[in-house]
Amino acid sequence: MSTTVPQFEHWIDGHPVPPVSGRHVDSTSPHDGELVFRVADGSAEDVERAVTAAHRAQPAWGRTTTTERSRVLTSIAAGIRENIDRLVELECAEGGKLPVPARIELLIAADYFEYYGSIVRTLAGDTIDQGPRNLTYTRHEPYGVVAVITPWNGPLNQGSRGIAPALAAGNTVVLKPSEFTSTTSLELGRIAAEAGLPDGVLNIVTGLGSTVGVPLVSHHLVRRIGFTGSVTTGRAIGRIAAERVIPVGLELGGKSPILVFADADLDAAARAAAMAVLVNSGQVCSATTRLLVERSVQDELVRRIGAILDGKRPGADFGPIVTSPQFDKMLGMLATARQEGAHAAVGGHKYEDGVPERGLYVQPTVLTDVKPDMQVAREEVFGPVLVAMPFDTEDEAVTLAHATEYGLAAAVWCGDAARGIALAHRIEAGQVAVNGGVMGVETPFGGYRTSGIGREKGIAALYEYTQLKTVSVTLPDQGIN
Ligand SMILES: NC(=O)C1=CN([C@@H]2O[C@H](COP(=O)(O)OP(=O)(O)OC[C@H]3O[C@@H](n4cnc5c(N)ncnc54)[C@H](O)[C@@H]3O)[C@@H](O)[C@H]2O)C=CC1
Ligand SMILES: O=C(O)/C=C/C=C(\O)C(=O)O
């Protein structure tokens, strides 16, 4: 094995710390299968060190003023921007991202720190009138040590989405990124320290879910959990949180619908549907990969989407699937879909021409003749696969929109904004975009149904990382009536 492969250690108490085990996990590029990094293979002992550091640092961090925390978070945002080229390089190497979308996603990571650094200065409780000789008020207090666990598909972006509001609220954090894409999270440790974040306030332990994730969420000093990932793991973490009676935010899977009516701007709808499979090759929880289209325009819409996807080049216009197991799972789902009667109007196979032998590329795909009970229509593919299903009436469109267990996001395209708004109110999903919409770090994000619990982004997330205390004081009788 080459000795020139960069090696990354945990980030604990303000410093890089090698794992107690001395072992490192190999991280390979999904673009060509080459070994790119070695990352600390954590254990419960490493978690213990990180949680202890976070616990020690919390009282002082929690006592800082919101102005002081605001300044540090704003400096972290600046640090991410200064280091953007390196961060892009790391996420492209280990996660197979394309440089332009990676840069956009990573700059949003900076926005989270700037945004929460800004709005925390408005964090305020209420005063409640309990009579003349009384002062009653509420305070938003931190939980203490918070665990943030993230998946592989948007590492620093998803990490920052939890870390920034948690730190802003006065908590300290132990982050466990995905074992497949850990490096930018570790870089954040360094960037945050250089920005003036005190030692121990942010700690990062890398490794597997079983050996790092489980001891972390089970640790008696961890008082709140923020998790992004699969429903299966979300359920497992939820069970531990229930047993421990601590709050947990779960941002889980999705199979989000895009509803297109005959009077919609079909070109705009086609572009949006194509982007759902091109951006990160569909490896986005909120990707709108179920195309529900009014029957009279189905063929035309699929043709327009096909025209956009046709000729898109692997490695230039869309990236690879992150790991071999994900890749194999996806090809298996496509094979099952074909057996069940679906047809690939576009793509449908592994991409082989002009990609490295071990490159994990799947053709951007549009499946037609899909029935709502097929596996590919119900389950998250997490890849560049759009399934098209026709509807004849608005009620039928809504029924189809609800034909999975999920409810993370939805999109509606129609010619009548009032109809779009009415549909947005009917659809069970945490975010609904009508005719494009605009979502950002300011707009709350999270699931209905099995897509999750709690909200990230926006002011809502800041409150998720605080607990509310009521203080009521009987004042001395000084003749006030
Ligand atoms: N938000 C979303 O919608 C996402 C959904 N997924 C779905 O999940 C599937 C698997 O992707 P993964 O990244 O492997 O998701 P995952 O849920 O297995 O892993 C997410 C994170 O949780 C950790 N983890 C795993 N088991 C754990 C446990 N028992 N306790 C604590 N932490 C644990 C992992 O190490 C990783 O850091 C994807 O195919 C996709 O369908 C994946 C990423 C994001
Ligand atoms: O922040 C967003 O709008 C989307 C986030 C996507 C994920 O968290 C995901 O794919 O897991």
| Tally of discrete structural domains | 2
Q: Reading side by side through the largest sheet, how are the strands ordered?
A: 15-16-17-14-13-18-19
- What form results from the Cα inertia axes? globular
Strand content: 15-25%
Share of helix, binned? 25-40%
- Give the CATH class of the largest domain: Alpha Beta
Number of helices: 15
CATH architecture of the largest domain: 3-Layer(aba) Sandwich
- The CATH superfamily of the largest domain appears as Aldehyde Dehydrogenase, Chain A, domain 1
Under CATH, the topology of the largest domain can be stated as Aldehyde Dehydrogenase, Chain A, domain 1
Distance between the termini: 81 Å
What gyration radius follows from the Cα positions, in whole Å?
24 Å
Overall mean pLDDT:
97
| Main sheet overview | 7 strands, mixed
Poorly predicted tracts of residues: none
Bound molecules: 1,4-dihydronicotinamide adenine dinucleotide, the ligand O=C(O)/C=C/C=C(\O)C(=O)O
Pairing-aware structural class of the strands and helices?
A: alpha/beta
User: What is the β-strand count?
Assistant: 21
Task: Describe this structure as you would to a colleague.
The strands form five sheets. A seven-stranded mixed β-sheet has the order 15-16-17-14-13-18-19, sandwiched between helices. The protein is globular. The chain is an alpha/beta fold. The chain contains 15 helices and 21 strands. The longest helix is centred in the first third of the chain and has 21 residues. The model has no long low-confidence stretch (mean pLDDT 97). It folds into two domains: 264 residues, Aldehyde Dehydrogenase, Chain A, domain 1, CATH 3.40.605.10; 184 residues, Aldehyde Dehydrogenase, Chain A, domain 2, CATH 3.40.309. Bound molecules: 1,4-dihydronicotinamide adenine dinucleotide and ligand LM24SWP5. 1,4-dihydronicotinamide adenine dinucleotide binds next to α7 and α8. It comes from Streptomyces hokutonensis.
